[in-house]
Design brief:
By secondary structure, the protein is of the alpha+beta class. Helices cover about 40% and strands about 10% of the residues. The protein folds into 2 domains: about 180 residues, no CATH class; about 100 residues, no CATH class. Strand 8 and strand 9 form a beta hairpin. It is elongated, with a radius of gyration of 23 Å. The protein starts with a helix and ends with a helix.
Amino acid sequence: MHQKYFLEQVKTKSIELGFDELGITDLKNFEFNSVKIKEFIDNNYHGEMYWMKDKIEIRSDPKNIWNEAKSAIVLGINYGPESNPLNDLKKVKRGYISIYSRRKDYHKIIKSKLKVLARYIQKIEPSKVKVFVDTAPLMEKPLASAAGLGWQGKHTNLVSRNYGSWLFIGVILTNIYFRNKKKIKSNCGTCSKCIDVCPTKAIIKPYTLDARRCISYLTIEHKTHIQKDFRIKIGNRIFGCDDCLAVCPWNKFAKKYSDIKLSYIKKLDMPNLKIFLSFSENDFIIYFIGTPIKRLGYNRFMRNVLIAVANSKDLSLIDDVLKKLDSRNEFIRAMAVWALFCLSKSRFLLEKKKRLEAEEFYYVRQEWFNGEYS
């Protein structure tokens, strides 16, 4: 089949399935940002994401995942919000959940669409295909750039002319060869808004991110204790951060998403922190089932909620915080101590007298000493 006609058919089908963008790139002599990845790992910018280091060689080339792959069909789905999410950070008594997570898990939604499209491709052109949605060591953003969907901005995320920074990416690798590369050069120019807005200065220079400082990493990937300086800057964010995406000037071209499956789940749109403080582990599972937040796990979730509570200055939450001082999880206890210190110094000192001597965990003890070195 003539490739132009084939691609027209695939694009028509992709639109029918709800995709907003489609591009294609061959994989010939293609190694994605190998030097950049090595620099990222060598500097330990990956933090506790050890899987990145373990699979660094696989990540350098899609053929290392599947040696029969000859081309990548890259698809994008817009998830642009109706209003600027930076305004939500002012609602300090409510928990900020990253825009992509205020809906059903996009991995499942997009993967089901990709599978339908992949079957369609095989129907009109006998071929082999494999689908990917951010779950394998495949570099989706460089692939999307090579396929012409956009470019990697200074915040290292994809930027689209049509949708700004709000695109979910899916990839279909195929053994059909398409000679095509449309890699778009960066159109960021002299703009540094994403760098300037980052609360923790995680974008250490244009196009370089230290994930260890990134609030999305700290609230999602980081499994243990979060240092005090970062906690203060996390504010009310309990899952992810959108600051560098939201501030991008290219978002003025972004359209609101149209796929009903990606619609907001109302209860995830700036929920009250007091509700979350009362959650048991079972409550957490039931509330977040089918969303990306469920993979966080209860302990990290409650750690994050307590950080937001500490930053809320909401004195009505003191009694709820006190209950968390008895948590079996040391990281929850540590953040409960810090939240209590932030909300009530007098109650903090009272509880310290009762609890410090019996506390064995290092980080919890350090939080009880907070009142003496802050």
